[in-house]
Amino acid sequence: MMKNTQPVSLKQVKIDKGFWGYYRDLAFSSMIPHQWRALNDDLSDAPPSYSLRNLRLAADRNRGLSSGETYQGPCFLDSDLAKWLEAAAGWLAARPDEQLEKSIDEVIDLLAAAQEADGYLNTFGSLVLGKNRWRNLRDEHELYCSGHLIEAAVAYFEATGKRRFIDIMERNVACIAEAFGREPGQRRGYPGHPELELALMRLFHVTGNPHHARLARYFIEERGQQPLYFEEEKKRAGREQADWPPYIRPPLRQYQAHKPLKEQQTLDGHAVRALYLLSGLVDVAAESGSSELMQTAERLWDNCIRHRLYVTGGVGSTHHGEAFTFDNHLPNGTAYAETCASIALVFAARRMLEVQPRSAIADVMERALYNNCLASVQLDGTRFFYVNPLQVWPSASQQEPDHWHVKPERQKWFGCACCPTNLIRLLSSLDRYVFTYNSQTIYQHLYIDSEAVFSMANGLVQLTCRTRYPADGAVTLHKDGAACRLAWRVPGWCRQHTLMQDGRQVVPDIENGYIQIDCPAGPVTVSLTFDMQPCRVTCDPAVPENIGKVCLQRGPLLYCLEEADQGRELWRLYLPDNSPVDLDWHQAWPGDIPGLKAAGYRQADGSVDSLYRFAETPELVPVRLNFVPYYVWGNRGPGEMLVWLHALPG
Amino acid sequence: MMKNTQPVSLKQVKIDKGFWGYYRDLAFSSMIPHQWRALNDDLSDAPPSYSLRNLRLAADRNRGLSSGETYQGPCFLDSDLAKWLEAAAGWLAARPDEQLEKSIDEVIDLLAAAQEADGYLNTFGSLVLGKNRWRNLRDEHELYCSGHLIEAAVAYFEATGKRRFIDIMERNVACIAEAFGREPGQRRGYPGHPELELALMRLFHVTGNPHHARLARYFIEERGQQPLYFEEEKKRAGREQADWPPYIRPPLRQYQAHKPLKEQQTLDGHAVRALYLLSGLVDVAAESGSSELMQTAERLWDNCIRHRLYVTGGVGSTHHGEAFTFDNHLPNGTAYAETCASIALVFAARRMLEVQPRSAIADVMERALYNNCLASVQLDGTRFFYVNPLQVWPSASQQEPDHWHVKPERQKWFGCACCPTNLIRLLSSLDRYVFTYNSQTIYQHLYIDSEAVFSMANGLVQLTCRTRYPADGAVTLHKDGAACRLAWRVPGWCRQHTLMQDGRQVVPDIENGYIQIDCPAGPVTVSLTFDMQPCRVTCDPAVPENIGKVCLQRGPLLYCLEEADQGRELWRLYLPDNSPVDLDWHQAWPGDIPGLKAAGYRQADGSVDSLYRFAETPELVPVRLNFVPYYVWGNRGPGEMLVWLHALPG
Lengths: 650, 650
Known about the structure:
Chain A is α+β, with helices and mostly antiparallel strands. Chain A folds into four domains: 185 residues, no CATH class; 160 residues, no CATH class; 97 residues, Immunoglobulin-like, CATH 2.60.40.1180; 114 residues, no CATH class. Helix content of chain A is 37%, strand content 20%. In chain A, the strands form three sheets. The first copy, chain A, has a seven-stranded antiparallel β-sheet, with no helix packed on it. In chain A, strands 1-4-5-9-13-12 form a six-stranded mixed β-sheet, covered by helices on one side. Chain A has a six-stranded mixed β-barrel with strand order 16-17-22-20-18-24. In chain A, a hairpin with a 2-residue loop joins strand 10 and strand 11. The radius of gyration of chain A is 25 Å and the shape is globular.
């Protein structure tokens, strides 16, 4: 099964106004420079990154200039730098910036200098492993780092047209391709942390080199085959190579490497790995035309979406191994819901949409983007969540080890800083998630104020999307150029929508959740209106955490309660089923997003002063409930937060 | 403040019929022999205990017979044996048993043989520590084991009148008293695991030797003084002495040794330690007459009861360090509620009652005894829970590390087997919890079928209590002998009670929750009836876990739902506020305890097949709810269990 549509490339879509204009500006003006300082160990009161320091050491060593200093920090630091490079390249694509391009080029110089003669490129490998390269694929992330560098090189090539970085990475891929495979003398290994698979497919898409796609397919298909490579690796080492806790040690499920992907029924293990792998799997399945691989991808996707997804678009139910657990286990207070995992979900969703546009997939992508991903950054762009919970009780975060990972405040930087750099590369490549298209049809998945150009069967098509979405549900689209078919997603949360074409209401067909109309050549104006009445969301009762509870959503934005508005012990609050929910413009957030308000109740202490009471009816006191969008929680000092609150049948 | 009443001694009360007759028989006929086999490493399919094996090694070593074998198992194994000895002595007190007495005497022979010349007695110490005795009081449990052996010796003395064991332990105490204290050359240490404090007070009570009480007071008052002994100990060792995880390492709160007891505001740290310590504290405070120590005891007790107690009488909210966490944090699914901790709560409650009978204290004692403690043993007496949860989801127990400690089935034995031996010593000393008394008044705290004799100011009093409690709430009391005052607790769960004296209804005074009447010399018959209508229990809304939820109690017995009756996903069940709860004699349990039944609802899947739903009203389907007493849960194969279920306001 080939892909039905393709993604846009960098520079094809322009986003600089509307809701996302704010975040794009923030990414470009604040987050990219802030993170550059972080990568240069230049932030006060934050743990050092060591990324650039290590790379300089490796370049010096390769040039024969050894200072005697050694590698510092975890083994995967090249990836932080790579993600920053990818984000910075996105900025160059949007707006030329000489100073930034110079910084990027300097890093590329360092990478070129650090690359070994045979193409091997990994700072940790060169400085620490030496001749022992590839000794511990399960844990040492050499292939993972190559994947991120490849993604950066592709973005840089798309942004600047300069091939230098991509040449470096093709030499690196050649070195990897020689080392891994099923030929005599090769290792039958695969990455402990997937990422290279999807990166190789991106490299294939820009270079057209089929070797890259073949190598990606090898990694996908070899994974989990007998004898299990990671077990063989351990045998060769003669010992357990990393001091993993017992919940990770035996079954290799944590690495999605316990059995071949085709035999895996559920999306398991480390959530980021699982979703990077799923992204690569979709690309490989589509390119190879393997229906078995595609069915595997759909099965794993469906399992994730149907049983393992938080309402915020977060994934990963436990901090133990940052992992999925089991179906319908979605604890709110101890959720992991790592920022990177939600970003990886966006990646996977886009690829699923390329295969077959279905609005339910885009719904998930939108949910993750507007909620879990966006909540991970402070409104000023300088602090980040790694973990994105649905319930915060600061006493627990301070005093109970199972809650230690849940921070009531965003942090400046992290010892493992995968999330902030991942977020900026998502923000600076946001254009890739708005549309996919083929020679006949342009599918619009997200309603983001943007301008775009598509080269279609009948010629060029210019599309302009003007909207304040998600401040309101009005979207105006101007199409010009060649005749084509246009398709717009009807969001799953939308109860009612209207479409006006050149001033007249139209009732078009809906296919897979997309409104579709044929546009003649020349200008066409279409107005879409999505009803954005606040909605109550309930959960499948198979999930124990959310029974009897409700949360609020308006458009794609989920809402929550905060101590700043309601005082402590948010769990005492009830939202009656029959209580109207109104917009609260008194409390508007960046992008003109309103708060929500409703009449509710708070359970009072009761008349009995004891922990347990006999035959006492709970005393409910009327109270006004003030909800804020989930993406802005934690911007008013630390405190409690709650997404799911008690419903009161009315 | 002296104690107002005293406990009974062994042989003073006889319990062999009624509800507890079953468990006493079980303890004596099944559990004591079963555990004797366990302590002799004679159980198949269970981890070895090593207790007797190690003791034999130590005795041999002391006699100069070294086999070259070494100590095995954790350092505190003497305590398992000691608790078994204490329980076995209780059996001897109830019924002479030559074979059992011979087994006990053989262990005492071994203890005598293992005791070092200066009185030191600890198997681990003699075999492993050698000259390094007392090097690590925080972790190595030498003083703790002495405490348990003292308790066993006291019980054996009370049961048999034989002094040999008590002489051994007084020599051991002399050795300890020489090593610890504030004199030059002494260590200013105290036990890492409290127990010796309360044991010394028991030894003081039977021997009258004031040195024992003084040593107990030293340990209580020295604890947590600056410089912190456990920090000094670590400095001397030059390293962290045990590989404790970070949540235990720094603050010594885990050991209640971070500051002096008088400055501690909340009952913190390892729950068993905290409650053994509190028990010793009450004894020391009462004996010393220190109102400051007594206020400390009351403050810590009140904190525990008001904010840290499960409705089952369990304590300890986290498996991390088997510990208390913070106020109102009482998670059901991950509760630790260790059997030993609930037993320790019973110990502490009895001592609080000795100081001042208050029914609220006895309510807690009864709650712990009939629920958490009793649930810890299989109905056949051969399997045990260490952890006693309020919600069991087997998928989580299998797949989620935070739930690993929650077992859906009782186990035969444990690597750390403190609980089973603690339970049998509780069962065989049950008589100590029924009454306390002083020269004027006998207070009855628990309604247990029993016969007792008291020596009072006016002469001997014989008391016979006949009851099927908690099968029903009828209690008949025959008093004979001298004139005295009798006082009976009115349970907190009881909405209505009546008292008939010699056939006439009486409305007596109630003081501190106790009905009190003056009885003349000669026979008096009193009938008490406690209304045992099933009650709904709700929880302080400051506890997030239980908001909107309810559980059922009848008399002292809490009820729960099980998969065996209701199928899976028990969290879908609702109990309407207006649904009558009836007794279900169709499903009666040992002791003639009925099940409970009520009309309820189960939330159906709903019409939408997706994880999240917009504006969908939950669909509730009528269903019959069958509740079983909590103490019998898990006797019909592994499966889900739930104490707190959703209430449905009616």
